[in-house]
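Thread: "does anyone have the structure for this chain?"

Original post by V.I.:
We have the sequence but no experimental structure in hand. Need at least a predicted one for the grant figures.
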Amino acid sequence: MNQLRVWIDKLPPSSNKIYVNIPRKGRFLSPQAMAFKIYAMREIQQQGRVAFLGLKQNVPYELQLAVFFDQIEYVKSLKGSRYKRIDLSNQVKLIEDTVAEAVGIGDEHNFRLVLEKHCDPDHPGMYVTLRPIAEDRVGLTKEQYDNDW
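Reply from O.Q.:
Generated one for you, tokens below.
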């Protein structure tokens, strides 16, 4: 099975900083989100050039994001909390849309989304992996899904 796997050495803005609303004109990508999207699309298209040949239309895909933050734990916390408040799911929407546009396969083909949170102070960024999944693993009934467990 062919797959796309690329490293993007920047993190997208959180979902609440992706869009700006302009009265009477609509909703647009924020400058920060647009800069990330342009950068990430270039990285995906350059690093994933060979993988594009094996990606097919109209098949189900798994999108895996392994996100590396510069810090995930507090050095000291007055509240006794071990982990910083970093909402991993806030990283998803912009990168999912960016991958779809970069490879030309709509995100409606993503049937599985795998998110991982990691820490590397020297290399913040993310691995983006897009791989086909078996047709018999999508569109399951609840009973079929329950039987897999």
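V.I.: this helps a lot. The chain has one domain: 4-148.
O.Q.: and The helical segments are 31-47, 49-52, 92-103, 142-148.
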